[in-house]
Amino acid sequence: MLFLVFLFAASAHAVATLRLTDGDGNSVTVADGNADGVITFNGSLDGNPADSVWDVNVTTGITKPVIGAAANPRMDLNSVNVTGTGAGTLTIEFSENGFLAPPVAAWITGYGGTSDGTVAVNSYYDNANVEGAKTTLIASLGPLGGASFSDDASSGLLPVSAPFSLTLEAIISHSGAGQVSSFDAEISPVPEPGTVILFGIGLIG
Fold it and tell me: What is the reported pTM?
């Protein structure tokens, strides 16, 4: 009982982080200071839109307790990015720790959007519960681009042990100025079979 109390207390103190890094050495990290499960960055990575390669970045990460919970890990990352002065690559990482093992330790990672360049998405977990750690790859999607793209992948059962961290990583590449990429990515557990069966019965009813 004391162990479970400790586990839930540890997960309650988890703080999600959002980090944006470009190819010029500019980086911004935003922490979920009030632990409400929502982080947003809106601005230019180097603070000067006039000479920044990535002059528009509007990025939001959403996780527990807004969506999902410690025992129902779920993360959503959405972003709009525009290159101002030329070509460039932008990496966005959204991470949270303090997750407990879901009933079925298999995962669905998916994303979709539009891009004048390309967008790739990777998902990771770390059994040491370190935020931002990319210890074990869950899925690797893309890179994709064009007027409309989408992809998803389901993992097999993975040996997660509580508490653990999850990280969503998006890599955006533009070949010139004035290009736009907009996407939404998500990772969540595969629904347990019992839930699927009940849902099917409900649909039949």
Answer: 0.86
